[in-house]
Amino acid sequence: MSFESLGLLPELLRAVQESGYETPTPVQAQAIPEILAGRDILAGAQTGTGKTAGFTLPLLHRLQANASSMQGRAPRALILVPTRELAVQVGESVRTYGKYLRLFSQAIFGGVSINPQIDALRRGTDILIATPGRLLDHVQQRTADLRHIEILVLDEADRMLDMGFINDIRRIIKLLPAKRQNLMFSATYSEDIRGLAERLLTNPVSIEVARRNAPVDAVAQSAYFIAKEQKRALLSHLIRSGEWPQVLIFNRTKHGANRLQKQLEEDGITAGAIHGNKSQAARTKALTDFKEGRIVALVATEVAARGLDIDQLPYVVNYELPNVPEDYVHRIGRTGRAGATGIAVSLVSPDESGLLRDIERVLRRAIERVTVPAISTPSPSARIVRASPPVQQQRPAQNARRWGSPGAGQSGQRRRA
Question: Does pTM surpass 0.85?
Fold first, then answer.
């Protein structure tokens, strides 16, 4: 199947071709025709399957085709996302693949000044990408008009419920027109998700392209059993001895992430950290430094488990296992994306054995146990800096390039989509 066979506008196909994509992923092949037909959908798809493009392309198509329905400059499509990083990335996707259309988009989220967002909304936009809390701030100040929304997208719906946004989502839905198209994407299906879908969706088409809660098949998973106080030495040893060019490391707490970043720097490994206590500017800088190779290790809390799209990320480390087993799936989904291979390593202390068993029950498989190697002591003078982009992973031969989300970009000013 090709993108041409999906019935998209020529302007969209041109943008897709210029981005180097030839073959739609399974979720795109199934979702795009249904969305173009105006149906509500409930899509279950793992991270890295190209689901962002799965709703972005048909959304742009429908808005352009129904340009006569424009009501001034009020938004006609609303995309709700759980985190700032995902808002930025979805906004970049909309701008990249709608660049030949006369549609405008705006991403709004917390952690930055609200005033530039107010100015942009007053100038008008067709597509609004927002986190729930900041959107309600704009509604309260009467700077966001949701009365003309034609298409609502809930992206990472399970994550939004996990983060406690259910009441905010309900408030937002009450502000929308009763007649609209609803698109709901979720990596997992809990009872809460199914309940929300029943209230939100009308005769939805169900799309599920992977076994529920399944890990990305291309990710090789292993676990080291080691004392908590020895984890830092083992991690530094693995990065150094394996000459890892790029690694995303997950820690449960904000203070723990900061501490591990400093410890890695003391071991001569360039590192950054992102978590909820960091300003948006600091988080954006750390992620940019990581993507562009100025740092080798990025230490993150769960805020980064969803939405981060790091091209060809080779390694993910669970420095601490997550308390919720499903979060493990989202963490390791940062690697092995869009046909690439990846490696996920977990450092398991004795008190985390129960968490590992819970994860294995969700995965329905055992994670390989690996013997802890002899650990060499790092030289403080030996500083690791990744001087070149990550090594390109092997991709399936039948597809020149699978469709995935583009890299993060900056938002703020009103731009052509």
Answer: no
For residue 331, the model assigns a pLDDT of 86
Taking all residues of the chain, what is their mean pLDDT, rounded to a whole number?
A: 84
**Cβ distance 318 to 250 under 8 Å?**
yes
| Cβ atoms 207, 43 nearer than 8 A | yes
Instruction: With a cut of 50, say whether residue 414 has pLDDT above it.
Output: no
Helices 166-174, 191-200: crossing angle, 10 deg rounding: 0
- Nearest to residue 212, comparing CAs of 246, 184, 176, 187? 187
Residue where a domain stops, chosen among 147, 177, 211: 211
Tokens of 157: 């719906």
Q: Measure the CA angle with vertex 361, ends 45 and 154; round to 5°.
A: 25
Let me know whether 232 and 169 are in one domain: no
Residue 288 belongs to what H/E stretch?
helix 280-291
φ, ψ of residue 163 in degrees (nearest 5): -85, 5
Q: Give CA separation, 392 vs 25, 336, 383, 385, in Å.
A: 20, 12, 23, 18
User: According to the model, what pLDDT value does residue 407 have?
Assistant: 39
Specify the number of domains making up the chain. 2
Round to whole Å and give the CA distance between 76 and 69: 9
233: CATH: 3.40.50.300
Residue 235: helix, strand or coil by DSSP?
Answer: helix
Domain boundary residue, one of 146, 179, 211: 211
- Which residue carries 């988009």 as its tokens? 105
